[in-house]
Design a protein that fits this description.
seven-stranded parallel sheet, 4 domains, 671 residues, globular
Length: 671
């Protein structure tokens, strides 16, 4: 065993012992593969099933590599704040302490988030009015008492939350804290917006009176002095798009939750523009502009609204569409506004000008109608219409500005779709022709970006622990909502399971219909439905009350970890294909088709496969879990693409016999 591998194994063993864990062969295979990739400077895709202990599987080799190369830096990027917090507060401290135990040296580490995750001291201190200072109660006490009041005024609650956040931020300054939103008192997004600042409106450390104590600058300084830095996919994307200015220089990159990478990077690279946004920025700038320019800026909000009302809620490809005339004028006016206000000395006026500059940049991006972008009109019942522009494909961005020059490990529980790595690899910028065969040697003078892939499996025996029941006898799902046959099936399954059900639905309408039906048919059962209360509260009740069921939509497909008897039945009402009228997905399918591929399989089927893998993976979370995944869409068995989707899911024993599934659930309920 080479020295780096020996150090990796020793750190892993010490880390597992420190947290009271058990040895897992898959975790050791993963650690060895990651150690080799880091040492050889290779790209690696590694699928590590739920229960493998994935975090320690890459942390141990990362720390061993940094011990051998102390001048280097490794960045770990996660999709969710939950995993980022778990790494920062649990996994990394345990692994670092274990590495110090093994090597005698301590690796430095830090967490780095986007600017809006930190309180802005300029807004906190300069924005405080005398009335806030005169309060006898603390903001936190006031906010708590108002929330508890049966008829609390929303504006009063918001004001109390803002006051509490300002008090907290001042305390953070006094104790040299991080000013991180995750550590702040309970608050809403609206309240946090009053004490943070968008990237564009930041005055910069050199121009801000609080630049020398800025929480953001402090976090970046700590990151620059650390060997191991934890960040998120969005900040990784921003770093790539803006000339590598958001993250410190790094030698190796580990991307966890890599199945989310494309969606998160797409989100970070997308822009929105609404009439309300234009009006809000215009009103903010009015007092600092001459009358003609101010009136024209404000009037453009109405013009944009008129153009959107006249358009169809779909992709815009016609360069003569009326919306482009408004965008062109908005671009010119916002340029004049931004240029005028940029000359001001007043920081608040400068920030208003920065907001106008953001309108300018978004309008320019939309007006360009680049073939690499997708522009469309989006619509929601309450929010009205607005414009969205998103990249058609983020693979070139990831390939050219992330993977090229930075050896990268991408890991997740779901990277093999249809039984193959190549589909996910292509979406992140790695081509199938560049894959190094298993056991093969990478070329001495590689062309392109050679990459390897490994599936270390899962410690779970899916075929013995779970059943995948496919309701082949049901009719195909309808666009008109969930049908009576499927509703009857759901009620019978929930009855057999004695509750203990996580229902994953294609739409909120379907989830609510299923909840109403089950409440009527099973009056003794407690059926919670997303929307009844805050999702965190519903999830807490679902975990605490084993016989309770929880029905919901997309946020439950990937965000719930409920081991044990609380979740012994997962119901999926419909294969989660993207909406056929979703402009970005349609454009990506068309592009794949025009490139000679199968657009449906490359985009829609891959999207559905990923969600099916994630959703069905909610069932088994530890080695003692047992249960049934019931999929009420017969196309999973009858359609030609069904085998691809089934191959993406955990290896449950499969049946189309309802009585087998019912009997299994009743036995589990009795036990």
């Amino acid at each position: 065993m080479t020295a780096p591998h020996a150090t990796t194994e020793a750190i892993l063993a010490a880390s597992v012992a420190r947290i009271g864990g058990a040895t897992r062969e898959g975790q050791h295979r993963m650690a060895r593969a990651v150690a080799s990739a880091l040492a050889d400077g290779e790209h690696l895709l590694i699928q590590a099933g739920t229960g493998t202990g994935k975090s320690l599987g890459y942390l141990a080799p990362a720390l061993a590599h940094l011990h051998a190369h102390p001048s280097e830096r490794i960045v770990i990027a996660t999709a969710t704040l939950a995993l980022q917090a778990q790494l920062a507060h649990a996994d990394i401290p345990a692994a670092v302490a274990s590495a110090e135990q093994v090597t005698g040296e301590r690796i430095t580490h830090a967490v780095l988030k986007g600017r809006t995750n930190y309180a802005c001291l300029h807004r906190v201190i300069e924005g405080v009015g005398e009335e806030a200072q005169a309060s006898l109660l603390s903001g936190a006490e006031t906010a708590d008492s108002l929330r508890a009041a049966p008829r609390a005024d929303a504006a009063s609650v918001l004001g109390a939350e803002v006051l509490a956040l300002r008090e907290w931020a001042r305390d953070q300054l006094d104790v040299e804290g991080a000013g991180d939103r995750d550590d702040a008192p309970s608050h809403t997004a609206a309240a946090w917006a009053q004490v943070s600042v968008p990237v564009r409106e930041c005055l910069g450390a050199a121009n801000c009176p609080f630049g020398d104590v800025c929480f953001v600058e402090k976090s970046r300084e700590v990151a620059r002095g650390s060997q191991l830095v934890v960040t998120n996919h969005a900040l990784l994307a921003i770093d790539a798009m803006h000339g590598h200015t958001a993250l410190p220089e790094h030698d190796r990159l580990i991307i966890d939750e890599a199945h989310e990478l494309v969606a998160r990077v797409t989100g970070a690279a997308s822009h929105e523009l609404s009439p309300q946004q234009v009006e809000r920025v215009a009103r903010r700038c009015l007092a600092h502009l001459d009358d003609d320019l101010a009136v024209e800026f404000l009037d453009l909000a109405d013009q944009l609204q008129g153009a959107l009302d006249a358009a169809e809620p779909e992709r815009i490809t016609d360069p003569d569409a009326s919306v482009f005339a408004v965008l062109a004028r908005l671009r010119e006016v916002s340029r004049s506004v931004a240029g005028t206000l940029a000359k001001a000395e007043d920081p608040d006026v400068k920030q208003a000008g920065a907001a106008a500059k953001e309108i300018l940049d978004v309008a320019e991006a939309m007006a360009a109608l680049r073939p690499t972008d997708v522009l469309w009109v989006s619509e929601r019942e309450r929010a009205g219409r607005w414009l969205v522009v998103a990249p058609l494909d983020v693979a070139p961005l990831l390939r050219d500005r992330v993977l090229t020059g930075t050896p990268t490990v991408l890991t997740s529980a779901t990277l093999k779709l249809g039984g193959e790595f190549e589909g996910v690899a292509r979406t992140v910028g790695l081509w199938a022709t560049e894959r190094v065969p298993d056991g093969g040697e990478a070329p001495d003078e590689p062309t392109g970006l050679p990459w390897r892939a490994l599936d270390v499996g899962s410690p779970f025996d899916y075929a013995r622990q779970g059943i995948c029941y496919i309701a082949r006898h049901l009719p195909n799902p309808s666009r008109d909502g969930i049908g009576p046959e499927a509703l009857a099936e759901i009620a019978e399954l929930v009855w057999a399971a004695g509750g203990r059900t996580l229902g994953l639905f294609a739409s909120q309408r379907n989830a609510e219909a299923a909840a109403r039906h089950c409440r009527a048919e099973l009056p003794k059962q407690t059926i919670l439905c997303q929307g009844d209360a805050q999702l965190s509260e519903l999830t807490r009740r679902f975990i605490a009350e084993p016989q309770t069921s929880l029905f919901g939509t997309l946020s439950l497909w990937q965000g719930v970890d409920v081991p044990g008897e609380t979740c012994q039945l997962v119901i999926i009402d419909k294969i989660p294909f993207p909406r056929p009228d979703e402009p970005l997905m349609r454009a990506r399918q068309q592009a794949a088709q025009e490139a000679g591929g199968n657009g449906f399989m490359a985009v829609a089927a891959q999207h559905a496969a990923l969600l099916l893998a994630q959703g069905s993976g909610r069932l088994i979370r530890r080695t003692t879990d047992k249960g049934v995944v019931a999929i009420l869409d017969p196309r999973l068995r009858t359609a030609r693409y069904g085998s691809f989707l089934r191959a993406s899911m955990p290896g449950f024993w499969q049946t189309t016999d309802r009585e087998v599934a019912i009997a299994a659930l009743r036995r589990l309920a009795a036990d």
